[in-house]
Every structure is written in C-alpha cells, then in structure tokens.
Amino acid sequence: MISLLYRNSTPKKAPPLSTEALDSLMIDDAISLVIPENEKRNHFLKILSEPLIDTEDILYRQDILRDFLSHRFLLANLSDLFGAFVSVVLEYNKTRQNNKLTYRKAVGSLIDSGVSTLQSISVLIRELLLLLQKLDASIEGLPIHSTGLLALRNRLHTIAKSDAFPKLLSIAKKYDRFTAFHLHADIAFDLGENAQLTEIRLLSSVEEMPVSKPQKEPKKLHLFKKRDSDDRTETQEAVIPLNYNSFTTEKIVGQSISDITDAMIDVANQILSEFMGIKDDLLFYETACRILDKLKELETPYVFPLFGNQTEILDLYDLFLLFRSPDETNVIPNDFSLFQNIGGMLIRGDNGSGKTVYLRSVTTAYLFAQAGLPVLARKAFIVPICALHILMASSENTLDILGNAGRFEEEVIKISEIVNHPMSGAMVMLNEFFQTTSYAEGAQSLYHILQYLSAQHMRWICVTHLLDLFDLYRNEVNVTKIEIQNHKAKLFTS
Amino acid sequence: MKLSILSLSPDYKYRYIDHHVIEDSGLSRILDSETWSFLKAICPTDEILARQRLFRALMEPLFREKFCSFHGALTAYLRYNKLLAESETVCEGLFLFAKHYQCFQKLIETIKAFPTTDSIFIERLSAYANQKQQAFHEYEPLFSEYQSLLDAISHSKIQVSSGRAHICKMKTAAPSSSVIDEIKACKRSFGYSEDISSPQTIRMSLPISETLHLLYSDEFSRLIELKETLHGMLDNDVFSLKEESDFYLSILDLVERAEEYGIPCSFANISDRKQYIANDIYDVSLLAKRIPNGQYVSNHVSFTENEHCFFLLGANGGGKTTYLRAVASNLILFLSGCPIFCESAEIFPFDMIFTHFPADEHFDHGGRLFDEECRVRAMLDKGTENSFVFLNETFTGADARKGLSLSLSFMRSFAKKNTFCLFVTHFYEVMEFEFPALCAAVKADHENQRTFKIERGVREKRSYAEDILKKYGLDRISLTEKGKIND
Questions:
Q1: Which residue among A121, A290, A407, B413 is buried most deeply as judged by most CB within 10 Å?
Q2: φ/ψ of residue A312, rounded to 5
Q3: Is A342 touching B (CB cutoff 8 A)?
C-alpha cells in the first residue's frame, strides 16, 4: 500500500501523546483560524501526536512537503482526484444497497440480481480506472524529487500505461449496461469427484445478443422430441429451457455471472486498498501548506530542520502567539539548545515572563520536526526523541476537588507512570510540577526524580518556581539553567 | 468369517455388565459412550490375551501410525458408502462409486502395510487383504476403463441464448480463456497478487443428470455395466471394524492422557487362581478432575481366595470411593483386554461385576432401604462364585442397628458364595466381626490431613467429619460465633 506519510508499513514512532498533553500545547487553538475545518485539524493533530523517530522517515515527509510547496497545483489535483475515489465508492455502496432491497423478495431472480451486481461493480471499476488515468496524467512529467511522490507516479504509470488497463476498462464498459434479457453466454463446467458441477466458468462470449445477425440454427437434441433421422452432427446438443423447472440451470448461470463479479470486486478492492488512504495523507500536507502560507504572510521564518547529535534552534517562535496574538510583531523569538552533554534544563522566571510559552514553543518545535514539518525558526538542528512526555501541573488540567493533597497525589501518579517505565532517549517536559506541596519538599522530591530520569538517560526540561532546585543543581554542569524575562531566555547565573 | 479385531469368535455369547456399573466406576467420565459400550462385554480369557497383544503392538509408534492410516481409510470408505447411498442421480452415483472403490482399495493397502505382529486379529486381516488385493489386480483394467469414461463425460458446456439453454460436449477438456481469466490477468499486470479461493460447486441435479445421460448415452451404458461388475469387489463386512478401531484408539488416548499426569499403565497377567492382586493402582477417572501431575495417589490391592470380602472404612474425603473406583474400573478394563492403570497386576477373569453406589437409587415401591435390599439381593442371586461386587455406603439409609445387620448379613452371603466383595461403610461395628477391614488413613499429628492411602486395619473409629465442617464455617466454634453475632 502506498503511503505519503510513511516510508514503509512499519514506521518507528514514539508513543502517542495524550489528548491532554496535546491540548496543553494549544496547537489546535493556534491553527483554527487558518484551518477552520475540524476534520483537517484533527487529522493533522493526530499525525503530530505520533512523532517519527527514524530520520529517514522524517526526511521522507519533508521531501514530499517540499515537492508540494514547489507544485501547489499538484497537491490540489491529487486531493481532488483521490477525494473522488471516496465519492465513487459511496455511490457504489448506495447502488448495492438499493439492489439488495429490490431483489430481496423477488423469487427466481438469481440471474437478475447477479446481473445488476455485475453492472454496479463494472461502473465502479470503470470510474476507478478513469480516475487512475487522470491521476497519472496529473503527476506525469512534473519535476518532483521526493521518494514518496516518485513512487506514486511510478505506480500510477504502471497501472495506467499497462496493456491490461484498456483491456480491463473494456471489460468494465461491456458490463456496465448489461441486462439479463440480453444474456448470451457460454458456460463451461466440469464434474468433480462427487459429480458436483465445479470449475463453472463463463467463457469470453458473454455479451448482449447481437442485433439482426443471421443465426444458423444449431442442431439440437430436444429432451422431449423425437430425433430426426438425418439430424446427426458431430457435436450433439441437448436442450434445457432456461425457465424450465431447473433451479440448477439458473444457479449455474447465476454462479458464472457472480464469478465475474467476484473477480471484478477483487480488483476493485485491491485498487481501493492501495490508493484510498492517500486522500487522508494529503489532508496532512494541505494543512501544513496552509500553516506555512500563513507564516509566509506573517513574514516569519521557518526551516526544515537538520538532524544530528545535538539540538540547537535559533530564533524559535511560538505558534500560538504568532497566530493568535493581536500584534504578531511583538512575538519574540528565542534560542534553544540541548547539547550532547546536557541532560536537562531548568527554566525560571516571574509570572507572565514567558516560561510556559518558551516550553511550549520548544515542545511544538520537536513535534513539528518529527512530523516532517518545518520548525518556526531561522535555523534548527534536532536530535529526534523516542518518546515525549508532557507533564503539566495538575491544577491546570483537572477539576480535582480534593484540594492540594489530591492534586499532589495526582501529579505523583502521573510521574510515577514515567518513572516506572523509563525509556532511554525520551524527553520529559515538566511545567510547574510538584508545586502543590511545600516548595522545599517539592524541590527535594523533584530533584531526586529528575536525577533518576537522568540516570535512565532520559532528558528533561523543567519550568519551575521551585528555586531550591537551582541550588541543588548549582554545581551540576550537565544541567542548563535558563531564566526568562520579558519573553527572552537567558542563561541563568546565580 | 466376519472380520473383527475385537472378537475371536463371532458366535461367542458375551456376558454384559450393567450400564450403571460403567458409570459407578467413573469410566463414563473419561471415555465416550461408544467406547464404554464395548467395555460392557466381558471377554473370555483367550480374547483378553488377543486384545492385549494388539494393544501392545499399538504401543509401538510405527504400528500405531499404520493403524491410524487404516482407521483413516476405514472412515473414508464408510463416508463414501453413505454418500453413495444418498446419491440422488445416476450421474452422481457413478462418480461416487469410483471414489468408493478407490477408498476400499486404499483400505486394503493400509492393511497390507501393517508390520509383522503376534496379534491374531492382524493376521486375519492380513490374510483377508491378500485375497482382496489379488482380485483388485485382476479388475484393474476394468476400473481404468471406468475412470476414463468418467473423465470423458466430465467436461461440458451450457449455451444460453434468448432465454433458452443447450448443453453440449466440450471438444477439449481445457476451455478457452474465460473473461474471468482475463480479469485475473489484468490484476496480475497491475502487480496485485492472486488470492486463492476455493471453487464454487453445485450439486448435480436430476435434469442435468438425465440430459448428460442422453448426451453421453454410450458412455453411461458402459459405466453402469462396469459398476455392477466392480461392485462385487467391495465388502460391507469391514464396516464394523471402524467402531472396533475407534475403541482401540480411544483407550490408547486415555493411556496417553494418564501418562501425562504420571499414571502408569501395564497389562495384567491372567491368573488362574481366583485373586485380584495389584501394585500401585490408580483411579484413572480422576483425570476428569484435572488434578495436577504428582498429586495422584496409588494404592495396593490384594483380594485372594482366603480373603475375598473386605469392609472399607475411614475418614470422610479420605479416598475410600476413589479406591473403590480404582479397583472396579481397572477390573472392567482388564476384562475387556485393555491395559490397566497400575504398576503390575495379576487378576482372575471374573465373569461379572456388580456395583451399588448411593446415587443411582430408584425408589419405586418401598423407599430407599427396601430398594437397596432388593438390588443387593439381585446381585446375590445373579452373581456366581466368580463375580465381584462393589458396594459404596449401602444401607446408610437405615438406622445404625438395621444397617449393620444388613451389611453383615449380605457380606456373609457373598462370602458363602465365594463371591468377591469390597464394601465401603461407616458402620465401624463391622470390625468386631469376622471380616477383614481396610481403612483410609489420616495423619493425626498433622490436623488429620488425608493421605488417600488405604491401609489394612483401622486405627481409630472416627470419620474426622469436623475438619470438613470447619472449612465451610459449620463447625461448633464458627456456629457459636455466628450465634453471638446474631444475638
């Protein structure tokens, strides 16, 4: 199955982010003005919530997005045409449903029912093939470079330009107006080891009865007539009328028609399962392009990140502030770095100084980068993380009515899930955690937990008012200390 | 002579044990009804030996494999026989006959493939197969012709046009490329894989059969002729072998299941003295309870001409009924020539088994005690000096004095008749009389833990019923506490 989102059928992904975690980043709020369609936003966020880990997988998407940015009409064409796949299938299902109702009560209508089903599937096949032809035409000859789109083009070309294409189209056209009344067929069958009729196969000559064609009357052996003395031929035939009291004959004819139908359905299913998913894949790129269009409009830089062994982002912007702020020129970019030897980052600052914004913009940058999207920055070098945990203070996220002890216990439960299932290479974002107890105890408790996480090779970024933590980490060179003032991040020196 | 792998002589008049004896022994819990219907027939000594020989052979893997092939071929032959009987058209009958014939041929081949063995049953089968195979050889050309004719009538075509249909012969067996083949070729061209679907079939109908008969009249005539000739080769006497082979396989399956749980099996020696001696005997019906491996407890059995009537007493839940079933079930298996579940044994070929377990009362007239008396009296009347009687807590429906009296009275009657008897009872007073007693032992120093071992003699005249009551909160202290709570 071709996918424009995944390089192969088993992509390596980080564990999905919870809805709660994603909501805390306010990405949906940020892009809702630009992308008012709920379905598109939801789909986009879903992809975002499953970060890719393998850089090859990330670059796969980046390249496709670059191609779409260079050829916007291609994205529009593909979206329309793959969208038409869905419409064609819906139409087919509707027709089938109507046919079922029509023939449900009709007795002795095996053939009629079979023929109408054959008609419906023939229409579907025909429509699908024509769509594939259009798709092939829309992508042919374009200077695209991404592996994904090239694979799609090759695949479409293989089908649309094959010798089988016109043949199948011709078969579909033959049957899409077929009626039982004009049935003219040769049906071969064998007798199996229990004399059952098997290998029932419709030979090529099923078609509408040719009009005004002189017919040489075949020599027949009639069931209930005497045989003429000179009525001998090499090929002897016996006559059984179709509407004779022989349910088997109807069944044989019905079976052979449904065999064609089954073969056609099989082809249709194969085509659909290969191409149906692309429509949804394209939604992601459509949304991404519109976001980037908006960034362009706001003259905000964005860059496809490079991947290496340390993270450094220069002039990183916050998406929410950019898109929702009344004056986007007031949005201040920041730098962020997490070098190889750095295990964690502590962030402090006054209320409203921009700590949460900073954390949010860094987290969003990781998510965008690992979704194959550009980062809202001038330059970006990223180390992909294999899991991302976002821990917000419970007061911000719950309607807990138990008071501080309850909230603290909730936070303990949340962090315990991470502590109990550590993953080397994962990142933990903590925003004002453990502030629901005495600060001294909170700091001590969090210090030990963060030490544990570091020992498990998990990195962390902790926004906090627990200033004792800065004291506890005073001599720790592997932990960066940042202070945010007026939305600007600076190294903290005590 | 009728073929059989169970009976040495077709005229032998078997004695049959009652249906409820199989149930009381517990064998009905672990064997299907077809199997234990065979167990009801008590075999003569030579037949016990003959069956044991075949069972021994079946315990060899190679022989077992060949036997299973034989069983499979029998099953197929029976199946086609049934299909043939149910066929509704001449055409169907002709085709089915070919399969039927081939199945019989295959059956003979499987018999010929048996390795050499000392089993008289197999020897007889092999002699039969030799005879049949020679005949098959002579009929080979006829059957070849039959198959060729079937092939000739197997390929036809229906031509449908303007509401009418014709059938005609196909000039070649392989049809020209059909539209479905074209569609499949297109699919392959597109790079899609072929899926394997089973072909649809339609049963032959009378009109089609009659029409084909007209179309291929010469072929049909010759086929009917050949069928009549070839039919003489087939033999319905083999049908009974299917059930008999089922029986062997079912018992072997039981042996394998028992082995998984550490229960051994062996072949008892047939004793010419009246005795039942067995070492480490098991109640194999406990397999139905899926007790873990290693927790099955064996016991010894020693009934001789000098001591052939025993009372069995002891703790509730101590294994008395299990012991009773172990002795009874293995006796039934022995008398059917089957392997038994113990390390070793020497058993006399008793001529009848009687059981009475409390669950199977039918109080038609005079109530439980009366019914029990009648039943035990019937055993006494019907039984011989070579019978074995198993009684499980019989007469417990009576008051202690009456129960004791009846127990002793009947036991004496059995003893006088030299009938063997094992009688489970809670009337401890029986120990004061002439009959030897067995006892279900407990570990008194371990809170009366049940050992499930049956020993000679009785240490304490107790049933340790209180342990059981405590487990379910019905002991005195628990009932007192409950009373305080209720107060």
A1: A121
A2: -150, 125
A3: no
Name the 3-class secondary structure at A178: coil
Instruction: Please name each of the domains of chain B with its CATH number.
Output: 44-154+207-260 (no CATH), 264-486 (3.40.50.300)
Rounded to an integer, what is the distance from CA A375 to the centroid of its chain?
Answer: 21
* Alpha carbons A288 and A292: distance in angstroms, whole number: 6
Cross-chain Cβ contact A221/B182 below 8 Å: no
Do residues A323 and A296 lie in contact, with contact meaning Cβ atoms separated by under 8 Å? no
| Portions of chain A given CATH number 3.40.50.300 | 301-491
Tell me the C-alpha distance between A322 and A487, whole Å: 13
**CA–CA separation, A480 vs A347, rounded Å?**
8
What's the CATH number of domain A301-491, 3.40.50.1010, 3.30.390.50, 3.10.290.10, 3.40.50.300?
3.40.50.300
Of the CA atoms within 13 Å of residue B436, those in its CB half-sphere come to: 15
Q: Torsion over CA of A253, A255, A257 and A258, rounded to 10 degrees? A: 160
* Contact check, Cβ <8 Å, B91/A246: no
Using a CB–CB cutoff of 8 Å, tell me whether A9 touches chain B.
no
Min mean pLDDT across A98-112, B72-86, B451-465 is at A98-112
Across the interface, which of B157, B185, B199 has its CB nearest the CB of A186? Answer: B157
Q: Give the closest residue to B187 by CA, choosing from A125, A131, A86.
A: A125
Count helices and strands in chain B by DSSP H and E runs:
16, 14
Using the structure block, give the residue that is written with the tokens 């008969």: B213
DSSP string, A225-283: SPPPTT---SS-EEEEETTSS-HHHHHHHHHHHHHHHHHHHHHHHHHHHHHTTHHHHHH
Of residues A241 and B21, the one with the higher pLDDT is B21
Paired with A392 in beta bridges are A431
Cα–Cα distance for residue pair B351/A471, rounded to 1 Å: 97
Residue scoring higher pLDDT (A221 or B123): B123
Q: Is A168 on the interface with B (CB under 8 A)?
A: yes
> Pick from A183, A197, A263: which is nearest to B184 by CB?
A263
Query: B86 contacts in A (CB within 8 Å)?
Result: none
> Sign (positive/negative) of CA torsion A16, A20, A26, A28?
positive
Determine the Cα–Cα distance for residues B122 and B131; give it in Å rounded to an integer.
14
pLDDT (tens digit per residue) in A65-81: 999 999 999 999 999 99
CA angle B24, B27, B28 (to 5 degrees): 85
Task: List phi, psi (to 5°) of A128.
Answer: -65, -45
Give the pLDDT confidence of B264-315 residue by residue, as tens digits. 999 999 999 999 999 999 999 999 887 777 789 999 999 999 999 999 998 7
Which residue's entry shows tokens 């077709």? B10
Q: What is the ipTM of this complex?
A: 0.77
The DSSP code sequence of B257-305 is: HHHHTT---B-PEEPSSS-EEEEEE--GGGGGGTPPTT----EEEEE-S
3-state secondary structure at position A410: helix
For A394: left if phi > 0, alpha if psi spans -120 to 50, otherwise beta; the answer is alpha
Question: Among candidates A387, A403, A485, A393, which has minimal Cα distance to A446?
Answer: A393
Residue carrying structure tokens 């949460």 = A356
Cα–Cα distance, A12 to A21 (Å, whole number): 21
- Other CB atoms within 10 Å distance of the CB of residue B192: 18
The tokens of B459 are what? 């240490």
pTM score above 0.80: no
Is B334 within 8 Å of B48 (Cβ atoms)? yes
With b meaning 16 or more CB within 10 Å and e meaning fewer, what string describes A121-131? bbbbbbbbbeb
CA atoms of B347 and B112, how far apart (whole Å): 35
- Chain A: nearest CA to B220, how far in angstroms? 13
What are the tokens at B470?
């405590």
